[in-house]
Amino acid sequence: MYKALALASLSLFGAATAQQVGKEQTETHPKMSWKTCTGKGGSSCTTKSGSITLDSNWRWAHVTSGYTNCYTDNTWNSTTCQDGASCAKNCAIDGADYSGTYGISAGSDSLTLKFVTKGTYSTNIGSRTYLMESDSKYQMFNLIGNEFTFDVDVSKLPCGLNGALYFVEMAADGGMGKGNNAAGAKYGTGYCDAQCPHDIKWINGEANSDGWQPSDNDKNAGTGKYGACCPEMDIWEANSIATAYTPHPCSVKGMTRCTGTECGDGDNRYNGVCDKDGCDFNSYRMSVKDFYGPGMTLDTKKKITVVTQFVGSGSDLTEIKRFYVQDGKVFKNSDSTIEGVKGNSITDAWCEQQKTVFGDTSSFKKLGGLKEMGASLARGHVLVMSLWDDHAVNMLWLDSTYPTDKDASTPGVARGTCATDSGKPDDVEKNSPDATVIYSNIRFGPLGSTFAEPA
């Protein structure tokens, strides 16, 4: 996976974020229920009350003594933020107007994320949200020996967009109390993933302002000296054209601040602490080109139920299986038709076959494969639900030919039918502002408890 995590946002008076708590906008988490299941076939499920919160990277922040921005567009306030620690003391993060500013709405058991939202003071692009257990704690999941099921509507997601639902090994309290972090999970702090993103503005209670470089193609984003690494399990990365699920193990536990080589920066992509590529299962990439898409076996013009099973016990993960349900019919994941890669689920053996045939570097194996991924999942992960465009490589790694300088007939290069000149953020933001993704009916429980598995 090649995602760039700086999703563009212009919140009130400019895009900003911080670590103290402001009082200008009350933070009220939109409610979203979900279910825990027992028994077999989804017949015994209990509704749990939950809510969602917006990631701190999107929120308005200002000096604690007034309204002056601490971060505007893609630049830090050099007076207020002379260093990371003092910046976190001087700046207050505020609550969010979820629907009016960010295009986020929740109701009953569903969450809708709109791509472009034009508010009174701003234009917001994309969002990243987390499922909450309480007002100040993220909901934690241990996926080993369990299955995670949800419904999704990607019918309004064109090439270049990614409606992503995934898990990362964040702290339940969002790093509350680390450094000068007084905001915590309530305000969406503590994010990390296997890309070790450098666009995270606050890490461990300090501003990531040291060495900050404004982006040359994203007026709202930039990169700092530090990255935020942690293991990541991508359940669902998708638009209406392509989808993939991908484990990303790391050699570190939980949110880890990194620099340089340990982040896997530049030419050191395969020398960092996290597996940035992961071991992905994309049916189109596995040469099954009629399985997922508009009017295909899984028709992306209609809602799809996605079931992911984590086979194992304790911290031992041996297999990640995938099923789909649509119009009352259960579909097993497609089998690979690539010569030398057999199967329809992710195992260590399958991943090694895929990496060998595709000629890819196997940092997945180097960093511990499913064993290390399982150890991370057993420690507990936070559920992330997002919508984003890609200022790095236009989402071509998900839905097109990538790398673009290779022949699409080369095994592993073709990932979807989107053109190699598609997905440019300026184009997508202009032409598809009303693009939306809807996540709903989340169910979680032991294997076979959330749906009727085929015999």
TrEMBL record:
<dbReference type="GO" id="GO:0016162">
    <property type="term" value="F:cellulose 1,4-beta-cellobiosidase activity"/>
</dbReference>
<dbReference type="InterPro" id="IPR037019">
    <property type="entry name" value="Glyco_hydro_7_sf"/>
</dbReference>
<protein>
    <recommendedName>
        <fullName>Glucanase</fullName>
        <ecNumber>3.2.1.-</ecNumber>
    </recommendedName>
</protein>
<feature type="signal peptide">
    <location>
        <begin position="1"/>
        <end position="18"/>
    </location>
</feature>
<dbReference type="InterPro" id="IPR013320">
    <property type="entry name" value="ConA-like_dom_sf"/>
</dbReference>
<comment type="similarity">
    <text>Belongs to the glycosyl hydrolase 7 (cellulase C) family.</text>
</comment>
<dbReference type="GO" id="GO:0030245">
    <property type="term" value="P:cellulose catabolic process"/>
</dbReference>
<keyword id="KW-0136">Cellulose degradation</keyword>
<keyword id="KW-0119">Carbohydrate metabolism</keyword>
<feature type="compositionally biased region" description="Basic and acidic residues">
    <location>
        <begin position="423"/>
        <end position="432"/>
    </location>
</feature>
<dbReference type="Pfam" id="PF00840">
    <property type="entry name" value="Glyco_hydro_7"/>
</dbReference>
<keyword id="KW-0732">Signal</keyword>
<keyword id="KW-0378">Hydrolase</keyword>
<feature type="region of interest" description="Disordered">
    <location>
        <begin position="406"/>
        <end position="432"/>
    </location>
</feature>
<dbReference type="InterPro" id="IPR001722">
    <property type="entry name" value="Glyco_hydro_7"/>
</dbReference>
<keyword id="KW-0624">Polysaccharide degradation</keyword>
<keyword id="KW-0326">Glycosidase</keyword>
